[in-house]
Design brief:
Elements lengths: L18 H7 L1 H4 L4 H13 L4 H29 L12 H5 L25 H23 L5 H26 L18 E3 L19 E3 L2 H5 L24 H4 L21
Parallel strand pairs: 1-2
Helix pairs in contact: 1-4, 3-4, 3-6, 4-7, 6-7
Length: 275
């Protein structure tokens, strides 16, 4: 059930119309890292989540993102200003011509699309995606902050980017509670899972914790060690030492509550189905 409360989560003030900035702010209304994308992504993920605590987290943040969408939308309406008579050089002509309110487009005029939504059903993958989404949204708000001198708008943006920081923290903490689950399980990990391939060679080659230590082997010329012309024939080792053998049921990895349906056995003496 949804219930709308007419009060803002945080009061929005605008000193004066600024259609130029309104166009930029559209990025957080109908853009790929905006508030609508975040709300629908987290809500979609929650519907397939079997962990009640993380489901609650996803729905709490999804609901707040809708509140942020409302804040940005109200701000956009005030930034556009009256549209009864607009000059030819009006900076937000597309919004003025289509009703004077915000459109579900980004700052470049590209329409919002469901393709922005990332929802896989794997908690570790989805929460990691969400943590990154919050940082991208925060980055855009930080850049928007540099594009306006309106004190009220700046105040709203500071609130919103602070909430992005909070959501990023919540998602990162949730990730820490599900380490070793889902896609982070030792799932079909062959010997190549612990190799770093130095494929961009020359001056500037660097070493760090991403390519040394942690049982990682550093491969200078993997093509000489593993490569060669394509060949027909049987794979000499179809399953690696750590790899799950054929017959493993993928469903039990992501959804412990899933049970593989058993094929229905025909009753003795019954006729087969006719099609």
């Amino acid at each position: 059930m949804f219930k709308h409360i007419k009060d803002m989560e945080y009061t929005v003030h605008v000193d004066q119309p600024d259609p130029r900035f309104a166009v930029l702010l559209l990025e957080q209304f109908g853009g790929g890292n905006g508030e609508l994308k975040a709300a629908l992504q987290y809500f979609s993920q929650s519907l397939g989540c079997n962990d009640p605590k993380i489901r609650d987290l996803l729905q709490d943040i999804a609901a707040e993102e809708l509140s942020h969408l409302e804040m940005v939308g109200e701000c956009l309406g005030m930034l556009i200003g009256p549209v009864d008579s607009i000059p030819k050089d009006f900076d937000a002509n597309h919004m003025a011509l289509l009703g004077g309110g915000p459109l579900l487009i980004n700052s470049g005029g590209v329409p919002w699309t469901a393709a922005y939504i990332n929802s896989t059903g794997d908690l570790y993958t989805d929460l990691t995606s969400n943590a990154g989404a919050e940082l991208r949204a925060k980055l855009i708000y930080e850049r928007l902050l540099q594009q306006t001198d309106d004190a009220g708008v700046k105040d709203m943006i500071r609130f919103l980017l602070s909430r992005e920081e909070s959501h990023n923290f919540s998602f990162m903490q949730a990730i820490s509670t599900i380490q070793g689950s889902g896609v982070k399980k030792d799932f079909r990990d062959s010997d190549f899972s612990k190799k770093y391939m130095n494929m961009s060679t020359g001056t500037g080659d660097s070493r760090g914790p991403w390519n040394q230590g942690n049982e990682i082997s550093y491969e200078e010329n993997p093509n000489e060690k593993y490569g060669g012309p394509a060949q027909y024939g049987k794979d000499p080792q179809p399953a690696g030492g750590r790899e799950v053998q054929p017959g493993y049921n993928d469903h039990t990895r992501n959804n412990p509550q899933y049970s593989q349906p058993k094929p229905t056995q025909p009753t003795p003496g019954s006729a087969p189905n006719q099609h």
